[in-house]
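Q: Give me the 3D complex with FE2/S2 (inorganic) cluster.
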Amino acid sequence: MPEIPDVQLGGLYGDRILEHYRNPHNRGPVAEPDLEAHEFNPFCGDRVDLFLKLDGQNRVSEINADSDGCSIIQASTSMLSDLLKGKTLEEIAGLSSTFRSMMTGKDVPPEALAGLGELEALQVVRRYPVRIKCALLPWTALEEALEAYRSRAA
Ligand code: FES
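A: Here is the predicted complex, encoded as structure tokens.
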């Protein structure tokens, strides 16, 4: 099993990450969720659980986002949970793609980057390639939840 390096967090972006890690958002339960997903990182055993409720018009009205693990997975999960509220499933798929592009170093137009809100801070994690998976794990869970929901609806 590869060693997972520590991330040195500093500056404005680091402060945002640590704030979400220490006070994660949207941990309250969601009754009768429309989408749910569970993912874990086999290298460390850290995990994420997502539960989303829709408002009947394909917009997220409630979200429970819970993760156990390092500062990066917890901050990414918390930031994601703030961003998704009020978004349609189509918008969420676009945000997920933008976030994945940012984390893997692809060119992302500034207006698309701005749409990620606080998640932009996680680009500092790109300096630690092994830890990129920590940031992406909640998004992998989300993409699986979207796929399962679409399959059920088809
Ligand atoms: Fe386990 Fe980050 S070290 S998800």
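A quick observation: Helices lie at 11-22, 71-84, 89-103, 110-114, 132-153.
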